[in-house]
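Trying the structure run again after the queue cleared.
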Amino acid sequence: MPSFLTQLSDDAKLAFDALTDRATGFVNPTLRLGVTGLSRAGKTVFISSLVHNLLNGGRLPVFEAVRSGRVSRIRLEPQPDDTVPRFQYEDHIAALVRDRLWPDSTRAISQLRITLDYESASGWSRMLSPGRLSIDIVDYPGEWLLDLPLLAQDFRTFSAKTVERAQRGVRSELSADWLSVAASLDIQAPADEADAQQLAARFTRYLQACKSDERSLSTLPPGRFLMPGDLEGSPALTFSPLAGLPDGRAPKGSLWAMMERRYEAYKTYVVKPFFREHFARLDRQIVLIDALQAINRGPESLLDLEEALADVLASFQPGVNSFLSSFLSKRIDRVLIAATKADHLHHESHDRLERITARLVQRAVDRIGMSGAGLDVMAIASVRATREATVNHDGHVLPVIVGTPLAGETINGETFDGERKTAIFTGDLPRNPDSMFEDLESKPEESLVPDLNFVRFRPPHIEETRGGLKLSVPHIRLDRAMQFLFGDRLA
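Done. Tokens:
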């Protein structure tokens, strides 16, 4: 009965929030765009570049409303949610344009409102619509999104899934210390806070090792263990999955009971508020992924990314919002999966990157369906840090990219200082992603794609006009992403 009442209360709150958002939308038409991504995929860079290109007349030929001249004014406005930190656009764009530094990664939720005044392409719509759309961009860590499946899992299920995953492949090595400590404790004995803290610390180190650049694994819930913020040290973050739970209920006062209680507190006080206050109110969603990093790290990293994306898509409530249903709940009616850093490849390989990304999400789409929701996959570069060229090598013409590698990046034993440009032949992605994934399943221990050479580049130098004004940030397909995510709302 308490569980039923809690669910009823949650549904009522969601319906109230949907009704409030709908009523506000009549006065000021608004679209809430969720921006998230998995581990260093470039969320902050995406938002900064999108806003900078809109405000500064960037080259956006595929974004129809701007291309046709129907947008008359674009401006930043105060955000509507007073309790959500503002996305610090000015600081981030200064780092990119002035200092040529990549801005800090997303560590918590933030929000920014940008408003466009436009003339509808339809004469009838011009009579009915105020010709104004506010886009509330909600930026949040991808790790938080991966927590949403926990809402449907009890502690036993969560423990079984997490331990089973930890015993596979390279994770078995990374999790050995944590699982060894867990096996040494009597989980049915009276709870001891020192044991709980030790278990949580070892489990956290395991998650951190999985996320490191050397491994680049993606499926890492609970997400707040990796970015605890003001919850660090709290009981809600001082728990651990347990291996081999016996049948029956946890003995009262036991370590097992303590872990179970704290796991439920994590769902109640951390995951549920994020879902209700932010995620459940979104209209559109973009998920940024660094597929190149996963490919570069090998088969296990790529398979883990596929699993993470399946969890991500399963968390959405995709579908078309009817007029009546939008008063009771919201559905995310467009989802964009964007493979970032396309500027690290010659354009000849962009379609291959898109096909690999589409293959990564195909199983999840087939399993959950999209209920009429729009889904698209793109290869983009929010900020284009390279240009393309060709070089002659042993009588062959090779397509290369030219850019300034970050200080410390190494290519063929040569370490760069962050100032000198170089031309790089990155190698070729496979033409057929299906054959690549078949190889993953049949021979997961073998190298996935040989001879790929990816490095990190500094942001580009932005030229100034004669008037001293900075030109807009260069990009790849950012306009195509805009058209998909909110172009229809400006029709």
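Residues 285 and 332 are 7 Å apart (CA to CA). Worth checking whether this holds up in the mutant runs.
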